[in-house]
Amino acid sequence: TMFASTRAPSPMFTRAAHASLTSSSSSSRRVRRTGVTRCETAGSVRREVLKREERTKLDPSSDLDFYAQPRFVTHVDNDFLAQVTELYRQRIPANSKVLDLCSSWVSHLPREVEYAKVYGHGMNATELGRNDRIDNFFVRDFNKDPRIALESNSVDAVVCCVSVQYLQRAEEVFAEIFRVLKPGGVVIITFSNRLFYSKAIQAWRDASGYARVQLVKSYFSAIAGFTAPEVITDMGAQDDSILGKIRRFFQRSSSDPFYAVVAYANYKPVYEQGDCRRMSVDDDECIA
Fold first, then answer.
1. What is the pLDDT of residues 167-189, one digit of tens each?
2. Residue 96 and residue 157 in contact, taking contact as beta carbons nearer than 8 Å
3. pTM, whole model, 2 decimals?
4. Residues 149, 20: Cα–Cα separation, whole Å
5. What is the pairing mode between strands 155-161 and 97-103?
């Protein structure tokens, strides 16, 4: 495992700190709002989602070797990435601590928003070192070791863009995501139909967009304590007229399809500003 910083070193990423962090057990937060039973511990794995054969890849070689050569490209089109950024803008408040999983040389956080800290994880140190939004990062193959090198209850948001299809131990990774999130913290998983086919798991490779959404939803539901996952396929304003629906159809046909699955640890927070209470950061409407 490699730990590094693109700015100032963090004691959280020292090897000694990592040894103590990763030896700790899963979170013991107990909640009532997410359907956790009295016999369950929040953050525990309720069930295995994938069968053994569904975790297999066509290319069983080392993932670290596969990603050893830096790739300074984006794997989806600009329309898709604009929707990712808008979703982050709406769901992640300013001054949050953010963890960008399976990241590379660019994160898609909105440029105008300042965050207290952005941690990065990926498979290539050179790519992560070029990412100017990341304060600290670590390199790890989650298919070999699914532990996240952060303290429990330490971040407000976890994001993962176009990489969930490669996780062979997804249940363990999602349990780790819950562990590092603060109560009310958000998880945003985005994906399209682009992938390194030989490195995607069998359950993902030939599945439809709908089936892939259901798979990601099942990862969340397999972990005690996450809220019911929310599915988003369009971040633009909805025009539900016939012409609007036709326009959206052709737009989607000409660009990479956008899928996002969003859930929260323990509960979904309400954002307050004066007398106005909102369900998301940029929501225009106040709720009672």
1. 999 999 999 999 999 999 999 99
2. yes
3. 0.78
4. 10
5. parallel
